[in-house]
Amino acid sequence: MYVTEQQNPNLAYLRDKTSKLTGKPGCYLMKDSTGKIIYVGKAKNLHNRVSSYFRKGQDHLPKVWKMVTLVKDYDFIVTDSEFEALVLECSLIKQYTPKYNIKLMDDKGYSYIRVSDEPFPRLTAVLQKEDDGAQYIGPYISSYSVRQAVSEANKVFMLPTCSKVFPRDFGKGRTCLNFHIRQCMGVCQGKISQEEYCETVRQAVEYIKNGSQASVERLTEQMYKASEELDFELAAKLRDRITAIKKAAEDQKIVSEDLKDMDIFAVSCNSGQAFGSVLMYREGRLFDKHSAPLGMTDEGSSMREGYILEFYRDRDEIPRDILLDEPVENAELIGQYLSEKCGHKVRLSVPQRGGLLKLTSLAKSNASEHLSLKVGRTGREIGALEELTKALGLEKPPQFIECYDISNFGSEDMTCGMVVFENGRPCKRFYRRFAIKTLTEQNDYAAMSEAIVRRFERYFEQEDEGFSTLPDLILLDGGKGHVATITPLVRSMGITVPIYGLVKDSKHRTRAATASDHEISLHAYRKAFNLVTQIQDEVHRWAIGYTRSKHSKAAIKSGLTEVKGIGEKRVQKLMTEFKTKEALSRASVEELAAAAGVNLETAENLYEYIHRLD
């Protein structure tokens, strides 16, 4: 999308001002008609960056397009280096909170772990911190992580989760199921002293605060000490507690107990919207997580950079390692900025293999699942489009995918089927079929060319809804030859949509995607592979169904001329009126006579012939 003078009358002024702008590093501040700052950005070269907003015919993503339509003027601040520009950008965004910069706002608020103030304290997850004498641990951003931590601590240390009040309810009623399956120490029996119970709660709190490794080390020391003092009952309890902690840690850690403290960022995009997710690991376990809508889709690298900087804007606790699902352009600058902010070296990296890659995939799945709720798509569909984007090297996930397939019976009844997938799902109201009109001999390349030309001629006419949307990706059921033939043809019409072929193996199953000069294996991208297979199977079904229909109709037409008094013109009248064999079979003698313009005797002969075909 590009901005016109009608949409923003100030473009001429903005272009003239920008033509004189310096090429030094700095920050720019976009302002609306009221003088309010609506966007703050940084640039290595102010002239080049700001020019890109106002250049004629410049294609913008929807978010940027909307912002540019509102720009009345802009200001700028020159800096000595790109790093200084980054630091200044962070400060200006915090100061002005511009509308079109990323804001990490969600409706979850903060969560706390509450240790109640009573003789036998309980651990619970709460959303509000109250002045009630209880101990509160937090705040945490993720209520999910808080509930998970409380549940795990209660289970590991066998703390009660029932509604009984102690010591009031000692000996009242029978012990619950949790006691019998060894998930509660059975405080209700009155056999656990207050001192022993409070020590267990203290250990549970320490476990939550410091993680499994520190807790195991301290409990192991206590176990050995109890053994030396011949307190074997206590040693056995501590041994069981250590075993439970290790088991819980195994369920949490995902990769290994040597997992470092790190934050893992991922961004998922679909339907013009973006969602970010951060997984925070501390002491080898998932400590917390954060997910937030990022608004309308922006350019991938800058969107991730904005997410990272906004996330750490008011945080001083920053781990040494930050993992990303995709590279960002200014990784070194951001690492330098965060290092100075927290006082130790911070490194941004994109894992390529192994356990760390699994962690980024997990963060990506979290972002996709949150986004799926917002845009009405499943996490699998969103993941498939993002994998396809990565595999094919596309700039953004394709919202509209068109796929074409040629079908024919020899040199007869040549057709081309076009199917459309919108955000990973079939959009059948946009499906179209083409009867190939210019060929008398079988030629798949020429047939595909004819269909593609007719499709984009309809796009320029803008009269048919099914043709009025420009696709984000074109797939051809065929190999390198199809891509090499169609790509220059489409480019000559001024269409720059990416084009790839779909190659099948000897068993007619999808094998790979192909450009004009190389193949791209999709086996490493399972979700994308399944989506492409679905698209290829669907276009084949759609195309061959049309060919069979045409072939059947041609057979009917040729057969009808065998009836005395029925020639080619009358056959054409009949097919125009009834269109299908089924409709023709339902017609009465009188209806046949009227449609073909023949007498009742001829119509009766025609009626008998049609019903002999059934």
Major sheet: 8 strands, mixed
The number of helices is 20
CATH architecture annotation of the largest domain: 2-Layer Sandwich
- CATH top level of the largest domain is Alpha Beta
CA(first)-CA(last) distance: 55 Å
State the CATH superfamily name of the largest domain: UvrC, RNAse H endonuclease domain
The computed structural class is alpha+beta
- The coarse silhouette is extended
CATH topology name of the largest domain:
Nucleotidyltransferase, domain 5
Structure in words:
The chain has 5 domains: 11-96, GIY-YIG endonuclease; 111-253, no CATH class; 262-376, Ribonuclease H-like superfamily/Ribonuclease H (Nucleotidyltransferase, domain 5), CATH 3.30.420.10; 400-551, Nucleotidyltransferase, domain 5, CATH 3.30.420; 561-613, DNA polymerase, domain 1 (Orthogonal Bundle), CATH 1.10.150.20. It is 46% helix and 19% strand. It has helices at 11-19, 46-54, 62-70, 82-96, 143-156, 177-180, 194-210, 212-228, 232-253, 300-311, 331-342, 354-375, 379-392, 444-461, 480-492, 526-560, 568-578, 581-586, 589-596, 600-613, and strands at residues 26-31, 37-43, 73-78, 111-115, 123-126, 135-140, 262-270, 273-282, 285-296, 321-324, 347-349, 400-409, 412-422, 425-426, 432-435, 473-477, 499-504, 510-514, 519-521. Strands 12, 13, 14, 15, 16, 17, 18 and 19 form an 8-stranded mixed beta sheet that branches. A 5-stranded mixed beta sheet has the order 9-8-7-10-11, with helices on both faces.
